[in-house]
Amino acid sequence: MDDISWREGGRDHRVRWRSESGAPPPQRVTIADDETRADDAYRLACEGTALLWRGDFQNARQLLKAMARRIDRPPRRRRNKPEPPQAQAFHLHRQARAQRARTLGMVLIPFDPGHVIPLRRAPDVQDACTEAHGPDDQPYVASLRELLGLIGAHEWREKGVPIPALGGDRIHPHYGVFSPVRGEYVDLVAEVPLPPTKTAFDVGTGTGVLAAVLARRGIGHVIATDQDPRALACAQENLKRLNIEVEIVQADLFPDGRAGLVVCNPPWVPAKPTSPLEHAVYDPGSRMLRGFLTGLADHLEPDGEGWLILSDLAEHLGLRTRDELLALFESSGLKVAGRHDTR
């Protein structure tokens, strides 16, 4: 883990730097407090200087909001400027969002050992930080923006997401694990007729929600895989809370053996993630999609079915055509037996 250093009170300081997004520690750091103006903070952040906050915590949140308003002001549009193609517009939008994240990530918060924030009116974030990072007995510095994301994730984990396909039982997503807030794809898995099988694989299980649905539908042996330790812990906790027996396996895509049903809900957008937390949404080069389709036949029992749950968002964004997707099926030796849609 990298360190961050700065000069304060005539002394040099150096502590650990934490960044879940994988951002490097800022090279230039200045001290900021309740007297710092939003215009000055925004200018410094845009120039690559981070602001280590020493004032009231709630004032730091207000400063961050003020900086966000300055970033989000709509730019002046040139007259008669043609709209870029959809794929180009998508990449330009992602570049702008990445720059926004970098700029807002320049407001930093100090932490004492035990994930304690030594600022006035600071909330108790020990549970939220411990869930994401584990225990920590050393001081460190992290981005306020990232901390607010941890707090939001902790609240979702505490509250849970009600799943109609599970009779209203809740799934509790962990930090960094894709949350089934929009459950249309879950409903599809709950409604499509099952093939006659006793074994099913849920490839890339995440929270474990699809594995839970398959088990509740009566499949006797469900194996759920993921390669992310956070997802595996999340699925394990959810399934235990639901009192559903599912075998959890750490694997890149498939477990050993074959099943009569193999389900996969890969990331929907074939683009490069800008941080580790985006891997649930972005699949660079359609790696997971291609890996699933290429290996599916070798993991299906005779007359087995593979259920690919995929949004057509990539097609609307101009990042993948329907013909390209169908060509992947054909090159993998797969036959499309049916299609079910939802909105």
General shape: globular
Give the averaged pLDDT, no decimals: 92
* Helical residues, percent: 25-40%
CATH superfamily of the largest domain: Vaccinia Virus protein VP39
> Would you report the number of β strands?
13
Report how far the terminal alpha carbons are from each other. Answer: 43 Å
What structural category do the secondary elements indicate? Answer: alpha/beta
Which residue ranges are poorly predicted, with pLDDT under 50 across at least 5 consecutive positions?
none
Q: Tell me the CATH topology of the largest domain.
A: Rossmann fold
Portion in strands: 15-25%
Walkthrough of the structure:
This protein has 343 residues and is an alpha/beta fold. It folds into two domains: 3-156, no CATH class; 163-331, 3-Layer(aba) Sandwich (Rossmann fold). It has helices at 38-46, 57-71, 86-104, 126-133, 144-159, 184-191, 209-216, 229-242, 287-296, 313-316, 322-331, and strands spanning 3-8, 11-17, 28-32, 49-53, 107-111, 140-143, 161-162, 170-171, 199-203, 221-226, 247-250, 259-264, 300-308. The strands form three sheets. The chain has a six-stranded mixed sheet with strand order 1-2-6-5-4-3. A five-stranded parallel sheet has the order 11-10-9-12-13, with helices on one face. Strands 7-8 form a two-stranded antiparallel ribbon. Helix 1 (38-46) packs across helix 2. It is globular and about 75 Å long. It comes from Actinomadura darangshiensis. Keywords: Methyltransferase, Transferase. Residues 69-95 are annotated as: Disordered.
